[in-house]
Structures are given as structure tokens and as C-alpha cells.
Design brief:
By secondary structure, the chain is of the alpha+beta class. The chain is 48% helix and 17% strand. The protein has two domains: 5-131, PAS domain (Beta-Lactamase, 2-Layer Sandwich), CATH 3.30.450; 140-249, Orthogonal Bundle (Arc Repressor Mutant, subunit A). It is built from twelve helices and five strands. The radius of gyration is 20 Å and the shape is globular.
């Protein structure tokens, strides 16, 4: 984005560089961070500090994700950072299940964008992870799509077409997608993915079922497709997740 003269004039008057840190400290349901080219934290908000089980920001500054989060999640987050830093690509609206130092877990949507220097090279990245809040099932919007949501939750192993789900709700595709986004902060496809992943996590944690059986029961055509999607969402392969869940439960 080209910098305008008015922007240059405005930012030149600031006493210190604007990072948005104080603003993001006011948002308890959102994690915010800036990292340098080595993947080290240089700016964090208070929510991230608390999610990492720390008390002060200085405990995170200068450290990488794999030095902050327990294995194997830390290594997975670092690998994601390195892809952005190396390629300059962005990660937008990525549905992820995060595991917190407190032992809890939560769904979020993550965005990571590269930060470029004056010569156009990538010098770092900025990212946010926004918590997904529980849906308000008493709202009028929810009542219109309740049957479709129940169908997804009960038959997540089946292929779904948004057009058919919308028709069943008496809505156009646009109206249906708009309501799903408003209620869940997700696209219909992400809602299906989230439902399938939650089931898979439970099966991996509580049973010894073969991964290929879990994949098929979750609606995937084969184990490789399931593994790719699961890794993108959790940051670990299904087998790595099973070992981690078992180790945590000990």
C-alpha cells in the first residue's frame, strides 16, 4: 500500500512508533503479536501473556513460539511463522484449535501477515488470533438455521452442499452463509470442518481406533486428506496429536 503524504506527516509527529499494543491490550478475546525476522516476539498483548501462563510481557519478548509453548505445539507454531517469513505469503481466516498453558483449549480464527522493510524484504510478521464465542441459540437468526446445524452435528460424516443446507432452511445460499457467519463467525465450510475436527480429537484422545477409520467416519475420502486438514487446523498430525493427548492425560 502506497504511503500518502498525509500519512507520512501524521506518523512523523508521533513520539514513538505506533504498534497498537495498548489498543489490543483492551481486547481479552484476541491474541496480538509482532515478530521479527527470527520469529522472536517484539510486541505482544496481555491476552497472549496470560494464555502462555506468564505474568509479564518481558517473559515473552525476544523468545520464539517453540521457546514459549510446550512441545509439540510450539514447534508447529514456529514452523507456521517460518513459512510466512520465508515466502512472504499471508495466512487469512485460518480456523485453528489452540491449546493453552492452563490446560484449556479454544477455537479461533488466525491471521498472519508479513511485514516488509524499505527494500521490500520481509523483516517480520504481525498476527492476531480471534476467539470464537459460543453461538446464541436463542437468537432469531439461529432458529432459521438450527435444523441445518443439527444436521451437520449429527451427520458430519456425510458430504454437504451449502445449496442443499440453505434450501432446507428456506434461505438462499447468500442468506444462509450470512446467518452462519453472523452466528458462528465461520463460513459453512469452516463450521463443518470444526465439527469434524472436534469429533476426530475426541476419538484420538479416547480410543485406539485406526486413523484411517477415524478419517472415514469424519467424512474424508482417505487418510491423507484427513491428515492434511487435521494438521492445518491443529498444527499436528493425527498420530502426533494422539501421543500428545495421551501424554497430557498421564
Amino acid at each position: 500500500m502506497a504511503i500518502t503524504e498525509s500519512q507520512t506527516e501524521f506518523f512523523s509527529q508521533l513520539a514513538e512508533p505506533f504498534t497498537g499494543e495498548a489498543l489490543f491490550d483492551c481486547l481479552p478475546d484476541l491474541v496480538f503479536f509482532i515478530k521479527n525476522s527470527r520469529g522472536e516476539y517484539v510486541v505482544v498483548n496481555q491476552t497472549l501473556v496470560e494464555r502462555c501462563g506468564c505474568r509479564e510481557k518481558r517473559e515473552l519478548i525476544g523468545r520464539r513460539a517453540d521457546e514459549v509453548f510446550p512441545p509439540p505445539f510450539g514447534q508447529s507454531y514456529r514452523a507456521q511463522d517460518e513459512r510466512v517469513l520465508r515466502s512472504g505469503d499471508t495466512i487469512l481466516n485460518q480456523l485453528e484449535l489452540h491449546f493453552h498453558a492452563s490446560g484449556g483449549r479454544g477455537w479461533c480464527l488466525t491471521d498472519k501477515l508479513p511485514l516488509r522493510g524499505r527494500k521490500g524484504n520481509v523483516i517480520g510478521l504481525v498476527g492476531v488470533s480471534k476467539d470464537l464465542n459460543p453461538a446464541n441459540e436463542r437468537s432469531e437468526d439461529y432458529s432459521r438455521v438450527a435444523n441445518a446445524v443439527q444436521q451437520i452435528q449429527a451427520h458430519y460424516d456425510e458430504p454437504f452442499r451449502v445449496k442443499e443446507l440453505a434450501a432446507g432452511a428456506g434461505l438462499s445460499e447468500f442468506q444462509f452463509e450470512h446467518r452462519i457467519r453472523k452466528i458462528f463467525q465461520l463460513t459453512p465450510g469452516q463450521l463443518i470442518q470444526k465439527t469434524r475436527t472436534e469429533f476426530a480429537v475426541r476419538r484420538l484422545r479416547e480410543t485406539d481406533d485406526h486413523i484411517v477409520a477415524i478419517a472415514l467416519d469424519c467424512g474424508y475420502s482417505d487418510q491423507s486428506a484427513f491428515t492434511r486438514q487435521f494438521h492445518q487446523t491443529i498444527g499436528l498430525s493425527p498420530s502426533e496429536s494422539r501421543r500428545t493427548f495421551r501424554k497430557t492425560a498421564e
